[in-house]
Design goal:
Elements: H1 22-33, E1 38-42, H2 53-59, E2 64-70, E3 77-83, H3 90-97, E4 103-104, H4 107-114, E5 134-139, H5 140-143, E6 147-150, E7 157-162, H6 163-174, E8 179-181
Parallel strand pairs: 3-5, 5-8
Antiparallel strand pairs: 1-7, 2-3, 2-4, 6-7
Protein name: Prolyl-tRNA synthetase associated domain-containing protein
Domain YbaK/aminoacyl-tRNA synthetase-associated: 43-167
Family: Belongs to the PRORSD1 family.
């Protein structure tokens, strides 16, 4: 097991707030309010998809790769959820959504719109996007999975959620829709 995971216990309840950021606790409270069950694994900071592999195994999920993107004018922002093992090809996505010159959005916008820092980008951040500045894009392969994995706005815990609960309960609560994209990850 990865040395970053000291305790492989899976939790299904709201943790004690001691030592946790408020934005993380807000995710757990919202999931409870929306009656969305989850399993949680606490761990050391995970900043790469490779580091998440043991988390994936313990939670029986495929952790999503979450990319925060924008157009060249920095006027349109996207959160892309795709399978962690797929390669991201800007040109492939740009063509599908009709937006030339996509790039990674800066941390400044990530914090401003989603209240998230690099390494913790997650669909859960949409609960903080009250002005609906971020457009959600989901690769069709993510939608085929019964469960999805994400961070609760921090990269020291990971969640297993039913994909259906995220689509049918969480997103309507946030007021965000989503657009399905087909990414091959091929050149």
């Amino acid at each position: 097991m990865n040395e970053r995971i000291h305790d492989a216990t899976l939790y299904e309840d709201i943790p004690s707030p001691e030592g946790r950021e408020e934005k993380e606790m807000a995710v757990y409270r919202l999931l409870k309010e929306l009656q969305i069950p989850y399993e949680r694994l606490d761990h050391e900071p995970m900043e790469t998809m490779e580091a998440c592999q043991d988390v994936d195994k313990l939670l029986h999920i495929h952790m999503c790769k979450n990319l925060f993107l924008c157009n060249s004018q920095k006027t349109v922002f996207y959160l892309l959820m795709m399978p962690g093992e797929k390669k991201f090809k800007t040109k492939e996505l740009s063509k599908q959504i009709g937006s030339a010159r996509l790039s990674f959005a800066s941390e400044e916008y990530m914090v401003k719109f989603l209240n998230i820092h690099p390494g913790a980008v997650s669909i859960m951040g949409l609960m903080n996007d009250t002005d609906k500045r971020v457009n959600l894009l989901i690769d069709e392969d993510v939608l085929k999975e019964e469960y999805l994995g994400c961070h609760p706005c921090v990269n020291t815990a990971s969640l297993q959620l039913k994909t259906r609960d995220v689509l049918e309960k969480f997103l309507p609560y946030t007021g965000h829709g989503y657009r399905t994209v087909h990414l091959t990850g091929e050149d």
